Amino acid sequence: MFYHRKELQFEAMPEKPNPVFAKMLQEVIGGQYGEMSVAMQYLFQGWNTRGNERYKDLLMDTGTEELGHIEMLATMVARLLDGAPIDEQEKAMKDPAIGAIMSGMNPHHAIVTGLGAGPENSAGVPWSGGYIVASGNILADMRANLNAESQGRLQVARLYEMTDDPGVKKMLSFLLARDTMHQNQWIAAIKDLEAKEGVVTPSTVTKDMEATEFSYKLYNFSEGEGSSQLEWMDGVTPDGAAEFQYESTPKAYGEIPVLNPAPKYMHNTLPNQDK
Amino acid sequence: MFYHRKELQFEAMPEKPNPVFAKMLQEVIGGQYGEMSVAMQYLFQGWNTRGNERYKDLLMDTGTEELGHIEMLATMVARLLDGAPIDEQEKAMKDPAIGAIMSGMNPHHAIVTGLGAGPENSAGVPWSGGYIVASGNILADMRANLNAESQGRLQVARLYEMTDDPGVKKMLSFLLARDTMHQNQWIAAIKDLEAKEGVVTPSTVTKDMEATEFSYKLYNFSEGEGSSQLEWMDGVTPDGAAEFQYESTPKAYGEIPVLNPAPKYMHNTLPNQDK
Amino acid sequence: MFYHRKELQFEAMPEKPNPVFAKMLQEVIGGQYGEMSVAMQYLFQGWNTRGNERYKDLLMDTGTEELGHIEMLATMVARLLDGAPIDEQEKAMKDPAIGAIMSGMNPHHAIVTGLGAGPENSAGVPWSGGYIVASGNILADMRANLNAESQGRLQVARLYEMTDDPGVKKMLSFLLARDTMHQNQWIAAIKDLEAKEGVVTPSTVTKDMEATEFSYKLYNFSEGEGSSQLEWMDGVTPDGAAEFQYESTPKAYGEIPVLNPAPKYMHNTLPNQDK
Amino acid sequence: MFYHRKELQFEAMPEKPNPVFAKMLQEVIGGQYGEMSVAMQYLFQGWNTRGNERYKDLLMDTGTEELGHIEMLATMVARLLDGAPIDEQEKAMKDPAIGAIMSGMNPHHAIVTGLGAGPENSAGVPWSGGYIVASGNILADMRANLNAESQGRLQVARLYEMTDDPGVKKMLSFLLARDTMHQNQWIAAIKDLEAKEGVVTPSTVTKDMEATEFSYKLYNFSEGEGSSQLEWMDGVTPDGAAEFQYESTPKAYGEIPVLNPAPKYMHNTLPNQDK
Amino acid sequence: MFYHRKELQFEAMPEKPNPVFAKMLQEVIGGQYGEMSVAMQYLFQGWNTRGNERYKDLLMDTGTEELGHIEMLATMVARLLDGAPIDEQEKAMKDPAIGAIMSGMNPHHAIVTGLGAGPENSAGVPWSGGYIVASGNILADMRANLNAESQGRLQVARLYEMTDDPGVKKMLSFLLARDTMHQNQWIAAIKDLEAKEGVVTPSTVTKDMEATEFSYKLYNFSEGEGSSQLEWMDGVTPDGAAEFQYESTPKAYGEIPVLNPAPKYMHNTLPNQDK
Amino acid sequence: MFYHRKELQFEAMPEKPNPVFAKMLQEVIGGQYGEMSVAMQYLFQGWNTRGNERYKDLLMDTGTEELGHIEMLATMVARLLDGAPIDEQEKAMKDPAIGAIMSGMNPHHAIVTGLGAGPENSAGVPWSGGYIVASGNILADMRANLNAESQGRLQVARLYEMTDDPGVKKMLSFLLARDTMHQNQWIAAIKDLEAKEGVVTPSTVTKDMEATEFSYKLYNFSEGEGSSQLEWMDGVTPDGAAEFQYESTPKAYGEIPVLNPAPKYMHNTLPNQDK
């Protein structure tokens, strides 16, 4: 059950409007690695947790915080859109500066949302539930989370560089900091779980389930041997079970597959029409 | 530039057909973490690499291998669909065993692909480019890759448990092994990059860009203090820069946001219609 | 800024597992009119509100409640999936009852989420930001909200009829009640706003913007005059501005459109290739 | 069965081309609330109607008209794209006016459709069947229809403000008028049905199905009591069954959910890995 | 402008309900090659036609007919769903025949559409504007149309085999016939246009635009020389300009690409982190 | 199984960067008819082939080549993005030339991919598995392939006209040539298969399955008789079985459909609520 408090977690006040940057900011609201993704990913992971209540609490803490980040960013987008000059476009386009703004805006901000944020990315593509994962395996999911915070912080850093508005920069510097924390916490959790379970997940795969003779070989499927020269290739694998092996010319272990003809009622092409 | 060899990388021969399991297997072909995802993710990452040619080679090696995994799985799906009893459904439905098969099949396998695999997941949702990422930041991307191999291996393990066909199990045991290797290699790469750059990515964010007073606090946004009791909470953060801090009652640092009214030409609701 | 409390808003405890019904319930989590939709719709509407703070508060109250409904439903789905018999499918399929379960489950519940809920509908299609709207016009949005609660309550009523598990029915009876409240509150808000602005939205369209001679005619584009016999057709329009008119044989007011040829550099078909 | 007449329902002739506005207009062709949505929504509702033939006729009348609106808009888009200066972009970009046009166009209009309209919105996102609903409950669907016409008319009004081309304005003034009619007719239908069935839909939910003690309370999930001050909060609910109640501090009626561990064959994280 | 007539173009009356087959039929309503696709594809092509009015008329004739096919199929789906036994599922699942029906139905038919058709395919994935094309080049588009009618007729043939309901078969036999006509007409149009323009489209590409030394070679990128043994490989190309050439070992004409490092403000990985 | 060679199949070196054109080029990477589509379409068709190994080889040859085309285009996009001026946008926007670039870029190229290509089209919409088909019927699929190469070559020709960069033009001239070859080869294959099977596919539909009285009539559903004047309308149908017939006023062969009321547990509107 959730409660809402009206104050923002952090300030979201630009120095002045900028409708083109408002479009850009949508990426970290409704993009693949935006705040909708991390909020929903952590919450679904929390709700699906079976029997590890401390990690569940951590997920609920962080997912709930991210809901507040969507709010901050949505507020910032609305303010960046304040008074956007979108009427009488033809006249406006004669002024190149305004022309560039109108060309560079997300049309949804003008036509659909009435100068507000929407659940979509910087190209206007709607957020998709297909972006997130909650698998029931906490180590796997913590890696998903570390990935999300890594991509997310990278995107925030790029947005920071793209603007010189001090108000926008201030809010982004807060988000960079929170992403630093979230990377740290997921890394710590991963280390903790890896220490208990081993680094290869799921750790509950028994040896008889796995064709272990294929578990430590790097196959050189792209000509050139650069990958073999990576320093760590010359050592023990992170799971401690073997040394990395390198196969310069990967073999095929299977045969040339030939499929049976389809039954007649499928209306597939009959065999031997190519002769 | 790519070349194709007709032999499969590994055998893909079920003992007998099973159209319901063919539907399930689609998850690891065209699902969020299926082979299409890892193939395309690694290849786009490789193509976008700027100036780290050994890692580019590693990405191209692995992405190219994954193309062969789609092939293996597609072959397996086609064989599991051999002779599926899909004609004269009404008659068939009277036999409960056949009824369950017909109810449990992916209808696309019968109607669209003619007993072949398709680029979609186990629910029949088409593969989406929105599943993958290639960011230009190799550490961030390696974490995406480790995530993909972790979720992917978990899904393969579950599929392994769901079948008792020795041929299917054999192929899945090969995929489990390759995912072990790929987890190991991405972990090794991550360690290598973290040693050079630090664990928080992107490492090129300078201190003046980040509001570091917020970089190490866990905010307790979900009541209950379970997360504070995680063992690692009581120590140094993985980036070595601080100790984890815990804020039991998170404060708001922002104010209650009030937005300006929209210009009249937006036809938004005028202010004070709620009084 | 949001806070989370661990208790559910209402109980979510089925009498016994039912993996097929777990699939059905996904519709009201991640479907077009599920709880993700209403939560996100109300929150985005709230965040985008410009100058009607009481309605903003109402939206935030309700959107925040809906987040808790996702949680309740996700918990119920997880419990309906408890111990689902998904291993060794082939054996299982020989028992028709189990066969029907396995055929009727959402494969994602087994392979992807590990017996948990996901952000998708009853067919396994991921939730999309394209389902929702926040337009900046509160009357328009309240109609979107009433629509969502009407479709949503209808779906919950159907799900209620589909089960005989008393625990599931109990939770659904709570959701039916909350949807009753939400329909009532949006209807009251709509009446309030209509009283102030008029029933046709946006009310700020001036008469010179609209070709009012076309504003009150029902055109009989489908042969048969049933629509003209609807009782209300014989009276004043709800906006009070006119009487409904009925045009039995709709006229064309435009001409046959003929488009100019494309410039040569478009490589469209040249004119007169059809002669 | 449908017939087509070559004349447009109304004129669609701009004074001069404007490729950027052509992009904007796509919103009301293939956006969430564009003409494709209303056409398909009304037609599917009509086709699914079971035993209310006058409403079915009304739906078919209106849905068929909307098909003609797609046509009008597609014609307008094609004319706004006439002779768009899309060759030799580099040269063109040196002229800022042309640069802004090229930057502001939908690239699909140049590359994919050859200066014609496409089934997509103003951001280039393809139309989705997920936008529409046909539920079999006419009151619920009429609310969906009123919502669609409200959002749609709002978008047309905004587009009207964005242009000063008299030909475009003329066509949009016609669409504003038709949306006025369609709002009026759906409102009248809603009133008619509400008078017969009551305002809460579906009206066939019996009292024993609903936990009516929760049917009339507004829960204050967002701090601040603005919503309680809305005038209508102090009165009878629109369904006439009760008075609105306000709960300032919403209680939890459920317990803290704890889920059972997953079976071993799911390879979820085992319990107590967080200690 | 469109008109609707209430009669169906052809009968759509099954002998008895069959909810599982109703799910299957959705493929030819809202699938990639269903009637929504051909209707919208032909209509958009017609609307975008610039100066070939006879072909435009042909497209409008056929697109308008296809609208009536959606109607026929939607009617059939509604009747196949008549009285589907979807209440009290748990009880029902004990009867294996009913269990198989409930497992095999599209849940949307029960929960969302109220026993009616929806704009989605047989897996429940919503129809997408991304399925269709209208390019402005009529020869290219006629090939798209022939493709659509070929895939569509194949799917109808498969559905015909899957049922033994004489009423369903009758309707499908009509659709098979119409697809025969539509294949014939698009083939005739293609021949007509190829005779005027040549077979390679767009025919307006001038020789200086094309690297013609690469225009007639089959590159053997998949080992094994089966393709070279296709009879037609040993002859003149269909455009009459050359003979097919076969290159057994395809050469690379480009170099190994090395990309420049990204500017610092992109926060990509710096060069040489792999050493 | 695939192998990768580092050299590009052809050069991909622009004379100078052009971030707006980089956005445009995405259409032929990840658009409906881009290289991802043809690669995946041909490979899935090859993998699904049952018993026509020469055509399978042809499909694998061509699909594998197309993988190399994605690579070429991705490389070109990366180079067109070299040093894109995306920092400190506000300053930049004051220079109209830079303003137009920033407005015209795909924001993903800056924020998400770090100056690299992504799996999406020119509007930023992710590639979808719903674009492609592999049906098991080779004639049908060859028509899909010819369609793809026709639309694809048209798009490349348009892109060629849009640039004056000699390096970009050179690469596009290579792609035009390869598309010429691929159109030729699919046309030859189609002719070959049509000669063996007949032109109407699937050819295995027996006469008793088809209502042949409807197989050769053009119905004039769009007023005006232009289509009847197409020259080929006056002759034998391409399948040689009949002459084209033209029905000026298409009849309805079905009746007005009236559906049964839904069972009460569906909560649909009861019959006769419209009276």
Automatic annotation (TrEMBL), chains A, B, C, D, E, F:
InterPro entries xrefs: Ferritin-like, Ferritin-like_SF, Mn_catalase, Mn_catalase_C, Mn_catalase_dom
Cofactor(s) annotated in UniProt: Mn(2+); Ca(2+)
Protein residues bound to Ca(2+): D57, D61, N220, S222, G224
Molecular function, one GO term: metal ion binding
Amino-acid positions noted as binding Mn(2+) 1 in the UniProt annotation, renumbered to this chain: E35, H69, E149, H182
Descriptive protein name: Manganese catalase family protein
Keyword Nucleotide-binding: no
A Pfam family reported for this protein in Swiss-Prot or TrEMBL: Mn_catalase
Residue positions binding Mn(2+) 2: E66
Organism: Salinicoccus hispanicus
Protein keywords: Calcium, Manganese, Metal-binding
